[in-house]
């Protein structure tokens, strides 16, 4: 049981660090205003995409593994624990992770910064 919660903690702390990094870059970009350059904007997009992918994957994993640590009774409909997975899944579909992963791959392999799109 402790190992499960330890893994949950590591996942959450990793996501928290990525979100804090993206937030700091967003604050810096906001302060740049109209002087924000293409490179800074692209680096911000990469940081946000990284945080989003990590938060989505970690969140969905934790919501599913929640039942491993709470037991069979936790699946009872009256508890509605499944709503956490469903709510997170719904939120993650509004800005598809697949687009973010593709942008991150393009950066990792080709050093190509993301271009502004409907989803960024």
TrEMBL record:
Statement: the UniProt record of this protein carries the keyword Lipoprotein: no
GO MF: oxidoreductase activity, acting on the CH-CH group of donors
InterPro entries linked: Acyl-CoA_DH_C, AcylCo_DH-like_C
Bilayer-crossing regions: none
Domain Acyl-CoA dehydrogenase C-terminal: 11-96
Keywords: Oxidoreductase
Protein name: Putative oxidoreductase
Organism expressing this protein natively: Metapseudomonas resinovorans NBRC 106553
